[in-house]
Amino acid sequence: MKKVVFIIVAIGFIFTMSGCSVKKVEELTDAEKFANEYSVSEENPFQYATLDDILDLFNNNKSGILFLGDSDSEWSTFGAKVLNKVVKKEKISKVYYLNPENIKHKKSDKYKQVKDLLNLSNKDSLPIVYVISNGSVIGQVDYFVHEDSSIDQNSIEELENDYLSLISEYV
Fold first, then answer.
1. Are 132 and 66 spatial neighbours (Cβ–Cβ below 8 Å)?
2. pTM (2 decimals)?
3. Spatial contact of 163 and 141, defined as CB atoms under 8 Å apart
4. Looking at residue 141, which CATH number applies to its domain?
5. Where are the beta strands (DSSP E) in 40-167?
6. Would 6 be classed as within a structural domain?
7. Would residue 141 count as lying in a domain?
């Protein structure tokens, strides 16, 4: 009987202790969420953006970097990792992130406005990085993926150079 009580107490203790160390998804910072979603360091500048955030950049003549990606795509994950490396190197403190695939109301006026401002079509593939300065897109990098493309050192260096060139326009 003592063994049974001991086992029940031990199991209860383990469940209690393991529950104390797990953060709820709502408690994660944007950087932590992005790190989990894209397998990058938690020390990243990515902030989840809404359509309102993006419209605010344009409507109020603001500047920023916008990353459009979908973590279900290996190419977006590849782009996120390379971009994270570049923005750390360039000491960029904020990158807006939006997954257009997750927008529930793609027929909304806000979505249509963002799509028009970014000159985004349904044929575009992700990832896409935009540099917005004073409310206007001044550059973008679309990493065009061929069916026979593979991620290798050459593609990493190519994309890193493209992102560095783009961000140099912003800095």
1. yes
2. 0.81
3. yes
4. 3.40.30.10
5. 46-48, 64-68, 95-98, 128-133, 136-142
6. no
7. yes
Residue 100 lies in a domain: yes
Closest C-alpha among 121, 137, 126, 125 to residue 54: 137
Other C-beta atoms closer than 10 Å to the C-beta of 115 total 17
Q: Residue 50 carries which DSSP code?
A: -
Question: Residue 93: how many CB atoms within 10 A of its CB?
Answer: 7
Rounded CA separation 149/155 (Å): 9
Is the CB of residue 73 less than 8 Å from the CB of residue 115? no
User: Does residue 1 sit within a domain?
Assistant: no
Domain count, the chain: 1
Task: Output the tens digit of pLDDT for each of the chain's 171 residues.
Answer: 555 444 555 555 555 555 544 556 568 999 999 999 999 999 999 999 999 999 999 999 999 999 999 999 889 999 999 999 999 999 999 999 999 988 877 788 999 999 999 998 877 789 999 999 999 999 999 976 656 667 788 888 999 999 999 999 777
CA dist., res. 156 & res. 159, Å (int): 5
d(CA 147, CA 145): 7
Q: The tokens 């560095």 sit on which residue?
A: 164
Q: Tell me which residue range forms the domain holding 76.
A: 25-170
